[in-house]
Every structure is written in structure tokens, then in C-alpha cells.
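Researcher: We're teaching a course module on how sequence relates to structure. For the next exercise, students receive a sequence and then see the predicted structure as C-alpha cells, so they can try to spot secondary structure elements on their own. Here is the exercise chain.
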Amino acid sequence: MDTVGHRPGVHEPSETRFSLGANQSGMRAHNERLVLSLVRHHGSLSKSDIARMTKLSAQTVSVIMRALEQDGLLRREKPIRGRVGQPSVPMSLDPEGAFFLGLKIGRRSAELVLIDFVGTVRAMRRSSYLYPMPEATVDFVLQGIQSVREELSPQQDRRLAGLGIAMPFELWNWAETAGAPREVMEGWRGLDIRARMQAEFGFPIYLQNDATAACGAELVFGRDRGLRHFVYFYIGAFAGGGVVLDGTLYSGPTGNAGALGSMPVPGAHGRPEQLIDVASIAILEKTLRARGVETGHLWTSPDDWSDLGEDLDQWIDQAAAALAYAIVSASAVIDFEAAVIEGWMPATVRGRLVERIRGIFGTIDIEGLAIPDAREGTVGIHARALGAATLPLSDRFLVGPQSQPREV
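Model: And here is the predicted structure for the students to work with:
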């Protein structure tokens, strides 16, 4: 299930035995995170590159990078020769340096992924259902994690750095929209999924809204690494989103920033409606069902919607119009560089949706506004599960863009 519900209290990890390094504390820990962040962004860097970027002394950088190499987080690449003096030795992230689990709990399916330190998916487990049942979901997660861990070597298992969970908050409020029995969905009210998982595992557990987590995946793993200010929409069963400011995922003081599914947009009959009620895939599903069309493949085959015809065309027009107005409204508050559109849909449909949004901009009065570039997401349909896995990665190994190096 993919929604707009937000709440405070995310990112509540517990302590665990796994750390960046044996000597890590204070300023040194900060500088190590900074080096890892720079290497992640650029792919590989030499000690001289790091020193130039951070203004840290060559000796300090040498100590940091040696420690990170000894901890198995960085590895040496082939020396670059042909310059005056000693050959430059680039350092890159070691894929085996750490592993992260990500869980997406959705309206029609749950996904569990394992990624390595560079973001490559090493394993995935998936469960499909008519609606998410609390205990069945817990069983899927426990069995899935056990199955994934059985495929890891003992050394890899020791480097599991955490589990991130991406799901709609207050899931019990979505019984009618999800087409689920209210008594079943009420079971989510009494289930603290983060605490339930923390009771089972010794590594940290994190929790975040699913669409916001997808936004985090675009920030960490997306191909447009130069974007620093963007508004993000994930179109799943329900539409939601996130906000990135100055290269950092912004959730606001109550965790409600980026609740874009709740944004008012023009409705079909001249009355404002929420974006979630116009641009969600659940709206397309409802239209298809009204005509007696089977809709299961919307959720099981998100790479092929070739047989949907005019119903899909109409949904794209309606969703694009709502998204265009939402983007314009957001731009009146924050000067975004881009509006990124991602979703549980074929890449061709995503492309059509973005192209239609661009066309609709020309029909809206945008005087006095700088409209961001509408562009497609680059992570893909699994952005929510991958975004969940970025929660422990970001919290434990990365720093924000404004972080400054500190000499020890």
C-alpha cells in the first residue's frame, strides 16, 4: 500500500555490535562518514582528491582512508599512472563492506530486499495478497529475513547493518480504500511493526513513510546525482511523495513534509479533490473493475500494461493534470529544480505521464513562478523497498551535504 500518511517518530534505531570501525568516535566518526559520502557520490577518489575536497590535511585523510580500508568499507582500485610523482590510487566502496535490508509493506504486496554497500540488490522476496494482514505480514518478514540470511556467509551476516521499513502510517485508516475488512486493518493499530522487528533482531530497525522512503532511494541511488532541490511523487496504489532540500531528504518537524497525496488539486466536477483521489493507480483499478476487467496484473506485472487501452489513456490524462497542478502549487512555496515522477508502472507509462505533465504546464497560469523540470525517476518500481534499505545506510554511513570536515 502506498500512501500519504505521515507521522513523527521515524528513524528510531537501537544499538548494535556492528560499527564503522573499532576506533570510531566524535570528529573521527564524522570525517569517516564524510569520506564515505564523497566516495559514494563520485564513484572512486584518491587521497589527494579527498584532501582537496575536504580541506583536511593529507595526513588526516591518509589515516581516515587507511582505517576505512582496514574496516572493509573501502578498497583500492588500480593505480593511475602517467603523472608526475607517485601513481594515484583511487579508493572505492567495497560492496562487501555492509549489507542492508529493506521492507516495503504495500496495499497488494510486500517486498523484502537485501542490498550491499554500493546498492546492488543481492536478494529479494515478495508476497502478494488482497490486502495486508498484520500477522501474515510479520510471518513473511521473519521467514524472508531468515531465508536471506541463510544465503549469506558468516562474515556477510555479521555486516548486516539494519532493516528499514517503508509503509503507510496509520494503515488502519485505509480499510475502505484498500478494499479490506475493517476488523483486519484495525489489527495494524495495535502492531508496532518497528518494535516487533526489533524484538527479533540485534541490528537497528528504522521506519518511514513508504513514498518518502522512495524519495530517499532516488536521492541516494538515483542517476541524477546533481539534483539538490526536488519534489518527488511516487504513484503506487495511492499517490504520495517526498521533498529534498539542499541534497537532504526533508521530513519537517512532525514528519509530515512531503504529504503530497493530501495536496488539493482540481477535481473532475470543478471541486477540489486530494491528489490521492485522482492520480493513484487505485483509481485506474476502480475504473477497470467497473467494466469487468481483471486487474490483478496491475500489481503482479508492473512492466506490462499494454492491453489497457482507453482506460489507461484517460487515467494518464487525469493523473497528469492533477500532478501538474500539484507541482505548480509546490513551486509557489519552494524553488525546486525538478519534479521527479516515479511509480509502480511500466517505464513507458511513466514516460507518457511525464510528457503529458509537461504539456499541461502550458495551460496553467504560472506567472511569477519558476516551474521545475518534470522528469522521470531513475530507480524504478522497487524504489520503496530500496528506499527502506537506505534508512540504515544513510543513518549509519552518510552525512548531509552541509556537513563540514573537522580536523582531529
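Model: If you want an answer key for the exercise: The longest strand covers residues 121-128. Residues 97-213+386-397 form a domain with the Nucleotidyltransferase; domain 5 fold (CATH 3.30.420.40).
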